[in-house]
Amino acid sequence: MNFNSKFYLALLPVLLLGISIKAQQPIADTSKNLPLTIAQVWQKAAINSKAVQIKQLRVTSSAEAIKDAKAERLPEIGINGEYARVSNMPVYENGIFNTPTQFPVLHTTYTVGGEAYLNIYNGNKTNLEIDARKRENNIAGEQQKLTVSEVKLRAAAYYLDMQRSIIFKDLLLKDIAAQEKQLLQIKTLQKNGVVLKSDVLRAELKLSKQKLSLVQLDNDLAIANQKLNILIGLPDEQRVVPVEAVQLDTTGKETYDEYLTDAGKNAYQLKISEQETELSKLKLKNIKANVSPKVGLFAAYNYSYPQILFYPYSPSLYGLGFAGVKASFSISSFYHNSHKVKVARLDLESQEIEHAQTEDGIRQQVNEAWLRYKEALNRVDVSKTNVQQATENRRIVNNTYFNQLSLITDLLDADTQLLQTRFDLAAARIAAQLQYYQLQNVTGKL
């Protein structure tokens, strides 16, 4: 058995597998296709993402906390009632070891009444508590916006991943069609004795490998589709069709300083850090307010039986009310509160340092995202040049091969390089678009 026969037998399983895969491919059911633009994907993600829904509940909860803090300004009103049976009251006039005298008592007693207290001043703690709850609500709101931005970025990554797989598949199908035509030309040359059988086998092997690559692209597309469906609240079997082509507009882009300025105004992490710093300041003020007098209005009115509060006593129902101003001051707060103030002050200093660290982090992220974006744009330009060069190289090698001036390996390498450069250009466009979204996310504008 010669070398060509052995090579052909080794290639046969691959060829059969490629034919089997092509035969088993189901006809696409376009009824389940859902065309979506990136804006529509973002809209669905902002509504249906579970991470966003959790943040929305926290915003709602913090809004209720504000109302609860404001309710502390309302007077405290309560009612009370008491019913009791009173035992006999022995009076030991001659000592406990002698027979006592039974003092006559009324065995039933009860009281029904109400009371109210209105705080007038307590060191401004109520207003500070309301401001603190408002800060927490602002933090929850910014955290929700940050989550929406991050979810949008993740949705864009899945969306662009699907686009990349679709573009790759389209390029591969076109290349397979071109390779099939080329294979027919090579077979014609082989029948005429111009080229060897090994040239045909090499071309068939490459064509089979490309057909196998279609399976991987279909799987990549299905995986990205499911990830996107989960994120935007669609069923797993729904096929999303990206309809918005990647079009990079390199004109009119902001400069690095402009992006940095935008980040200083809009970055969600920075806003959250600012609100947390203000919250620490309010906490310090609240603790300092512990060393303050408390003043309020109070009123109470009770119906009681019997009347044993004032002499002479009376076995009758009576009513008694009080009203006035109530003031108190805790002297022990001077030494109990000092360490609490120091802890709160240290927490504030720590938060201020963390805020400065957040500013540094935002500046670093903007710089990195900006440089990577410019790098991605440059890679797109280089990839365009590479496609032109690979196209020209493939044309030259194609002519020389069919004129018997180059080898089949040169032709197949030229075909591979052309396809790879086209893949690289598509991937570079996708990466540049995703990096642009990352830059928008960092600056708080996504």
List the helices and strands and how they pair.
Layout: H1 3-24, E1 33-36, H2 38-48, H3 50-70, E2 76-85, E3 89-91, E4 101-103, E5 108-121, H4 125-191, H5 197-232, E6 239-242, H6 256-266, H7 268-288, E7 294-305, E8 318-328, H8 333-336, H9 338-402, H10 408-442
Describe the structure.
The protein has 446 residues and is of the alpha+beta class. It has two domains: 28-74 and 123-192 and 225-293 and 335-442, Up-down Bundle (Outer membrane efflux proteins (OEP)), CATH 1.20.1600; 77-121 and 296-328, no CATH class. Helices cover 66% and strands 14% of the residues. The protein contains ten helices and eight strands. The chain has helices at residues 3-24, 38-48, 50-70, 125-191, 197-232, 256-266, 268-288, 333-336, 338-402, 408-442; strands spanning 33-36, 76-85, 89-91, 101-103, 108-121, 239-242, 294-305, 318-328. A four-stranded antiparallel beta sheet has the order 2-5-7-8, with no helix packed on it. It has a two-stranded parallel ribbon with strand order 1-6. The longest helix has 67 residues, at 125-191. The chain is elongated. The two termini are 66 Å apart.
